[in-house]
Amino acid sequence: MIIDSVANLGLYEPVLPSIAGRDGYLYTIAEKMNAFVSDRSHSVLLIAEKGDARIATGWRESRDSRDVTAACILREGEFALFLPGEKYVISECDRVLRYVLE
């Protein structure tokens, strides 16, 4: 999980070039989740557009683990990036955009 200001999003293009074209991707509005999820093929970008969100990640090498390894508050104007296979959960959120990137 990478968390930073949306103003710094361009700095992460060397890690994930598709960040540069995120405006061309469809997004969904993230909702509160009941369990961890992961996308083994794509990176997931969450952007707190309005208000805050509480998010957590779990250790990705252990498929069956339900342990939280990091938790934080994603504040308005910040993003969280989860790389393929990284588990995450959103426990509360206001308006958070969720992009699935190549």
Question: How would you describe what is shown here?
Answer:
By secondary structure, this protein is an all-beta fold. 0% of the residues lie in helices and 47% in strands. The chain is built from no helices and six strands. The protein has strands at 2-5, 27-29, 43-58, 70-74, 78-82, 87-101. The radius of gyration is 13 Å and the shape is globular. The model has no long low-confidence stretch (mean pLDDT 88).
How many helices in DSSP terms? 0
**Alpha carbon gap, first and last residue:** 16 Å
Mean pLDDT across all residues, rounded? 88
Question: Which structural class matches the secondary elements?
Answer: mainly beta
N to C succession of SSEs: EEEEEE
Q: In terms of per-residue confidence, which ranges show pLDDT below 50 for 5 or more consecutive residues?
A: none
Q: What percentage of amino acids are in beta strands? A: over 45%
Oligomeric state of the chains in view: single chain
**Which term fits the overall shape?**
globular
